[in-house]
Amino acid sequence: MDSLVTVRFFTVFPRQPGQPDFEACLNEVQKQGDNPGRQVGGTTVQANNLALNGERYSGDLVRFQTENLPSLASNTGKKPRKLVLAKDDDALGHHAAFVYERKLRVLTYQIARNAVPLSMFNGYIAQVCNHPGFGFEPVIGANDLKELNKIIPKTMLIKVADPDSLEAIEDEQRKLRSSLKNLRGLADGVYVKVQIGLANNKGHLDRGTVGNLATWLLEQRVKRRGKIGLIQVSGKDHADGDVDLDFLKVQLGGSKRLALKDAGQDENYSMRLAFLMECMDQNYNTLKRFKPKALD
Description:
Layout lengths: L2 E12 L7 H9 L6 E4 L2 E11 L2 E10 L26 E10 L4 E5 L7 H12 L4 E5 L3 H9 L1 E9 L10 H17 L4 E6 L9 H16 L5 E10 L3 E6 H4 L2 E6 L6 H18 L1 H6 L7
Antiparallel strand pairs: 1-6, 1-7, 1-12, 2-3, 3-4, 4-5, 5-6, 8-9, 8-10, 10-11
């Protein structure tokens, strides 16, 4: 059976002035030796196959699973058996490949349900480089980008049916998940629809925070967590009035079924990496036009 590989594009920006850029941090990770690992929120994350080829860094991130292991089943009529790891330091590994184009500051990232979420990769980078990490904005189509660049963001609208299953790593994510869970519990409803906004107050929502939350929720939806039905940013355009942008419909990326079942680990990674490179090449003209606005 083929495996579905899904990728999405994100721009990367620093959270604080003067901190090292993403390229410098990837260089620092490479200096840590072969397959460097770090604990992020109680989970071991390891970076494999780190390489720089021209303008592109690439690698494979591994999330260690040592608890809640699945059973070992056989289609022979026998009961499933407990899965026992051979050594105490062994673990199940869940993989996510990435490619970072340093010229464009765009990250192409593989998203899989049990693999390293983008926020956990961010925590890994923050530990290696000893700084607050980075912000990420989803890359969207050219026409939608024009709309986004024209508007002053005033509200963010979210619809979530299963907030308990959201995987939250960073503080902002935990706060939003907690609020969604509380609201859903109070109303005992099927879903929660929350609008975050400024009403008639002057100013605008922080673009960095909005971008990070949208990125997290988009990733959770691809992983089929949360039963997310809406991620919408609305704002004011001086020429056209109110503008609504639905991120579920406009984020760039791609999916493809790859024959990974019988591939060895090196071949498995090579096939996934080739697909990420292919996606980046196919969307390169659009990626060149996308400029992150989070620090404006």
